[in-house]
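One such given next:
>
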Amino acid sequence: MSYPVIRGHAFSGVESIDEFPNLKAWIERIDTRPATQKGLNVPVPDIMKNPEKLEEYGNLIQSYFKDRLNM
């Protein structure tokens, strides 16, 4: 797995990674890196820290795939 996939776990239906403490700690370590923070805010501020924007983005992604996969 890669950092972006695990960090966005909620988009795949995995509500929490609390049962995987090592994985959670790995994500937290990467999140604190200055280069990661810089990258997460390009081109717009990190939506994962804004629940309203996160939900809006999640709905957009779900509708995108539903349209493409005719679900």
Residues 3-70 form one domain. The radius of gyration is 14 Å. The longest helix spans residues 51-69.
